C-alpha cells in the first residue's frame, strides 16, 4: 500500500450526477491536496485542506478530511463531461519537528469518466 | 505569465545518450520540484530545489540522475546514459512558498529507444 491511495480506481457516471472519490493515507500530514490530470497533460491543483480543517469547498468541489481515519474524500457535484480526467490526492507529511516542506506523495489516482 | 514551462514536450533518446529536461518555474516562485510518472501510475517525487540549492533528492536514483536550479535560468534535470526504464513523463512543479498548492508544467515525455 502507498501513502495516498484513491478509491475507486475508476468511476463512470452520467452528466449531472455527483462523483465521490476517496483517499487514504498512512502518516501524519501537514495538508492534503487534490489534483486533476487530463490525459497526456500536467496536473491542475484543485484544492488544499490543512490537517486542522475538516471540510472545504471550492465551486462544485467539496473536500472532507478525517485525520482520525487518515482519509479524505472529494465530491464533484453536478458533474460535466469536461470533468472527465484522472484525480489524484497528494499529501504533505508532518515532520517530527512540526515543520514540513512541500514534498508531495501521490496516490495512484481515480479515473473519472462523465458521459454526456 | 504562462505558468510552469517545460521543454521539450517530447524527447526521444537512444540508450546510452543523455537527456536534458528544462523547467522554468512561475515567475517569483523559488521552490521547484521534479516528479516522474510511469504509465498508469501516480507521480513519484524525485527532487526538491531552491535557487542554487538541492534541498531533498531522496527520490532521485543514485546514479545517472542529477538536477540543478541555477541562480539564473531554468531548472535542469539531467539523465546520463539513459536506459529503457527511464521512459516516463517527467513533471516539474513550482510554488511561491514551502507549503502551498503547486503549479505543474505539462511535462516532458521521455522515450528511450
In brief, what are we looking at here?
The complex is a heterodimer of chains A (116) and B (113). Chain A has 116 residues and is mostly beta strands.
List keywords for this structure.
heterodimer, A: 116 residues, B: 113 residues, mainly beta, 7-stranded mixed β-sheet, 4-stranded antiparallel β-sheet, 11 strands, 0% helix
Account of the protein in words:
With 116 residues, chain A is an all-beta fold. Chain A is built from no helices and 11 strands. Chain A starts with a strand and ends with a strand. Chain B starts with a strand and ends with a strand. The radius of gyration of chain B is 13 Å and the shape is globular. The model of chain B has no long low-confidence stretch (mean pLDDT 92). With 113 residues, chain B is mainly beta.
Structural class computed from helices and strand pairing of chain B: mainly beta
Mean pLDDT of chain B: 92
**Which percent bin holds the helix content of chain B?**
under 10%
- Give average pLDDT of chain A, whole number: 89
**Any idea what the radius of gyration of chain B is?**
13 Å
Shape of chain A: globular
Biggest sheet overview of chain A: 6 strands, mixed
- State the order of secondary-structure elements of chain A, H for helix, E for strand: EEEEEEEEEEE
Shape of chain B: globular
Q: Count of helical segments of chain B?
A: 0
Give the number of DSSP strands of chain A. Answer: 11
Strand content of chain B: over 45%
Low-pLDDT stretches of chain B are: none
- Name the chain pair with the biggest interface and residue counts per chain: A-B, 26 and 26 residues
Strand content of chain A: over 45%
Quaternary state reads heterodimer
Name the helicity range of chain A.
under 10%
Amino acid at each position: 500500500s502507498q501513502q495516498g491511495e484513491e478509491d475507486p480506481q475508476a468511476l463512470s457516471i452520467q452528466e449531472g450526477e455527483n462523483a465521490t472519490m476517496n483517499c487514504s493515507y498512512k502518516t501524519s500530514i501537514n495538508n492534503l491536496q487534490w489534483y486533476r490530470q487530463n490525459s497526456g497533460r500536467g496536473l491542475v491543483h484543485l484544492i488544499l485542506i490543512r490537517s486542522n480543517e475538516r471540510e472545504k469547498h471550492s465551486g462544485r468541489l467539496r473536500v472532507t478530511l478525517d485525520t482520525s481515519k487518515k482519509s479524505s474524500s472529494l465530491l464533484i457535484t453536478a458533474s460535466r463531461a469536461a470533468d472527465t480526467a484522472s484525480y489524484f490526492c497528494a499529501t504533505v507529511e508532518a515532520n517530527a519537528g512540526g515543520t514540513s516542506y512541500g514534498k508531495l506523495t501521490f496516490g495512484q489516482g481515480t479515473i473519472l469518466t462523465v458521459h454526456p | 505569465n504562462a505558468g510552469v514551462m517545460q521543454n521539450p514536450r517530447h524527447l526521444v533518446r537512444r540508450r546510452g545518450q543523455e537527456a536534458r529536461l528544462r523547467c522554468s518555474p512561475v515567475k517569483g516562485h523559488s521552490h521547484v520540484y521534479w516528479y516522474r510518472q510511469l504509465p498508469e501510475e501516480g507521480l513519484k517525487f524525485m527532487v526538491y530545489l531552491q535557487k542554487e540549492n538541492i534541498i531533498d533528492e531522496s527520490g532521485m536514483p543514485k546514479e545517472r540522475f542529477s538536477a540543478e536550479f541555477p541562480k539564473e535560468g531554468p531548472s535542469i534535470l539531467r539523465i546520463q546514459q539513459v536506459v529503457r526504464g527511464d521512459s516516463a513523463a517527467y513533471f516539474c512543479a513550482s510554488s511561491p512558498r514551502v507549503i502551498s498548492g503547486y503549479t505543474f508544467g505539462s511535462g516532458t515525455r521521455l522515450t528511450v529507444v
